[in-house]
Amino acid sequence: MTEVKVVEMEQLWVSVDTLMKLYESSESFIRRTIDEMRKSNHYRINVAVTASRYLRVNLAGFDKYYRKKYALKVAN
Description:
With 76 residues, the protein is of the alpha+beta class. The protein has helices spanning 16-23, 27-39, 59-70; strands spanning 13-14, 47-50, 54-58. It contains three helices and three strands. The chain has a three-stranded antiparallel beta sheet with strand order 1-3-2.
């Protein structure tokens, strides 16, 4: 079994462009995922809309949602 090291991160708020680079995904996919997060009661607090509708997303919250929603189920 693979060992996993858990690191606690400070709250880091990032833009859609940064998420596109980190997750190597298209802008439409990232924005769709953020919209799903905003509809969820649990993950809504991880999305902030600042002046001029500029989106900022909590990276740790996005990663948690992304892993929960899109993680591949690997059979043993």
